[in-house]
Specification:
globular; 151 residues; 4 helices; Thiol Ester Dehydrase, Chain A; five-stranded antiparallel sheet; alpha+beta
Length: 151
């Protein structure tokens, strides 16, 4: 697991006086970038290898609102990894209260061709250190968007 911490800034607040939806994504992206840096896919690696990190799909689940000044902790785990892609699950907390979850499928691509590109072995091995050890994906990560209607 990789942990990223930040605070809710005044400019992140919307007209309802809660954290704006866009900034939940922003915070998750900032945490993901830190995770990529941690496993070795930092700006130098991306430039040298001529690669980009592209989020191909994402799903967010809002649970509770964040407010100005709240301290946020984002816990990120890699749930599935291929040489050129990963499934990332992130949970946002304020203290012990879960605020939001985000699952994303991210692919490493060649900047010039746009085709998938394998990570170097040492980077792939480093990513394994953040990989979830269990075999089952959590329900929230595989949940489909839908309307829950009473039977």
């Amino acid at each position: 697991m990789f942990i990223y911490e930040t605070k809710v800034h005044e400019q992140w607040i919307d007209c309802n006086e809660h954290m704006n939806v866009a900034f939940y994504y922003y915070a998750f992206e900032a945490a993901a970038i830190e995770l990529w840096d941690f496993i070795g896919v930092d700006q130098t690696y991306r430039t040298t290898e001529e690669i980009e990190i592209e989020t191909k799909e994402g799903h967010i689940q809002f649970i509770q609102e964040a407010n100005i000044g709240d301290s946020l902790r984002i816990e990120s785990q890699i749930f599935h990894i291929l040489e050129e892609a990963l499934l990332l699950g992130q949970e946002m907390f304020c203290g012990e209260h879960i605020l939001c979850r985000f699952g994303s499928f991210t692919e490493i691509v060649c900047r010039k061709s746009g085709q998938p590109r394998a990570l170097a072995k040492e980077v792939f091995d480093s990513a394994l250190s953040v990989k979830f050890a269990g075999s089952d994906l959590p329900d929230w990560l595989v949940r489909r968007v839908g309307i829950n209607r009473p039977s």
